[in-house]
Amino acid sequence: MRQLRGQERVITANRQTSWAFADAFVAEDEALHVARERAHELGLRPVSPGTGAALRLLAAAADAKAVAEIGTGTGVSGIYLLHGMRPDGVLTTVDPEPERQQFAREAFRAAGFATNRARFIPGRALDVLPRLADGGYDLVFCDGDRLESLDVLAESLRLLRPGGLVCFEGVFADGRTIDSAAQPAEVLRLRELLRAVRESQELMSTLLPVGDGLLCAVRRG
């Protein structure tokens, strides 16, 4: 990697401070704190407060009534999505680990959401998503197996209504996505995902520098 000049070091430091400030700007309640702590205990990496707030905003902007989530975790991202969705909206959340989904159920309840606001489906994303309705979703949030990203993108496009949003979490891969050194297969797959989304004629996309990178795209009508 090239050596940073003095001014570049200042810019980089300022950006890191700004990102930290953006996360600190988001106030999280007790339900989110508990869900986040459970994630850490299980060795999971929940979305950052900044990423959660971005998802909440996008769900609200889309007036989302039906959202699909790949990667339930312990419910951190789900709480943010539910807060942004319409009061009668339903979150369909998919995860291969039923134990995680039980934690998420408790987290949603602690956050004040009725049980009928979420539908939990245990299983691998690529086994479950083909069973969901074509064009039936306003937003699809993807935080699952990075190696399945391109297949999940294809399924997400089928699920989304025109004007719907698809979002992928963690596309920076802790800086490895742009690192010129040899990278593991999951990072190479993320690069393919970024290229596919950027070049797609079906999508209008942007990359938000929140958390570990949030790739967002709108399906054109």
TrEMBL record:
One of its GO terms (biological process) is methylation. One of its GO terms (molecular function) is methyltransferase activity. CDD domains: AdoMet_MTases. Keywords: Methyltransferase, S-adenosyl-L-methionine, Transferase. PANTHER family: PUTATIVE (AFU_ORTHOLOGUE AFUA_6G01830)-RELATED. This is Methyltransferase. It comes from Streptomyces badius.
